[in-house]
Amino acid sequence: MEVPINNFDDIRPLNNDEVKDAIESLVANEDFERAFRYIEPDVNWKEFSETMRSFKTKEDFKSKLAYEAVMLVANKTTFSLTISGRSRLPKDKKPCTFISNHRDIVLDASFLNVMLYDVGYGMTQVAIGNNLLIRPWIETLVRLNNSFIVKRNIPVRQMLEVSKVLSAYIRHTITETKESVWIAQREGRAKDSDDRTQGSILKMLNMSGDKDFLSNLMELNIFPVAISYEFDPCDFLKAKEFQQKRDDPEFVKCQRDDLLSMETGILNNKGRVHFTLTQPINDQLARLDPNMEKNELINAVATIIDKEIYKHYRFYPCNYVAYDMLTGTHRFSEHYGLKDKKQFEEYLQGQLDKIVLPNKDEAFLRTKMLEMYTNPLKNFLANQE
């Protein structure tokens, strides 16, 4: 499927010719300054602005400012940030489509990129939903930082064309510009941490190919990534949303909710954070029967991605405690001590106390939060059977 390259203009990252103007617009923006001071309250804005203006290319911006900002967040809000499976990266730095489960709106791709950069692989382009571009400076910042825009909440009649352009852009990036791409396995985060690849994502990736379904996906070199956060700072916000949707099926989040989730996820404690580069799946795709019925084939590919993620989670005491609390058993008691259990119970109550609702159902909210910490373990166990 041929899509003119100029159709990418409103979704692509900024190019180097646009860097100077983008930086000028950022350093002059009071909202951007205010947001940056959340992360670094003592910043000397004049010196910072001069540093920003010294960047002439996107690579300068990404490898210096963006890298340092993400590591600052990691140092302030995580106990550790680690990665495994580096030996599975292509030795020739062949570009890949990294598909991962999705925990944090901003940091999943940001953390992955700084760790890929550290091991010499290079940063990816990042898919970001336009629902998160709440302020004009946010769009400027993310496009300067090599993000491309995924249009969400569009009329049905436009959806097909938008998906075709997005698919073509991803394929163009992988096969022509030779850059890797990160995309979540589903639209939005799995609020209950029951991570499952949406067939619609795979259908979108296939649209731009000119071969059969499996060959089109293999051309994109899909590489699943398993993300494990010890603590999810947004767990209480996700639980709150579950009750709001339970009580009002028409409930829809507003932009303020998304902004709060971004701020909460960036600024608060995550404990230990681990990324596992699982295994590129082309060999597994090559073993599938291309003559399978289309939906069956899509489900088979989604299952391959999911299983790679499930078997490469990293678990922490809180996951085992949550499982035993939710099931009323002691199945995993050898994986935690009394201190671990007490600390998690106190953490859980502290998060529940942050939820403000007129008809707050604490028992329901507690269950939803326990499910968030239990579901990855349940999926891991189911994958062993």
UniProtKB/TrEMBL annotation:
GO terms for molecular function: acyltransferase activity. InterPro entries: Plipid/glycerol_acylTrfase (IPR002123). Coiled coil: none annotated. It holds the Pfam family Acyltransferase. Keywords: Acyltransferase, Transferase. The keyword Cytoplasm does not apply. One of its GO terms (biological process) is D-glucuronate catabolic process. The keyword ATP-binding does not apply. Residues 82-227 form the Phospholipid/glycerol acyltransferase domain. This is Acyltransferase. It comes from Parabacteroides acidifaciens.
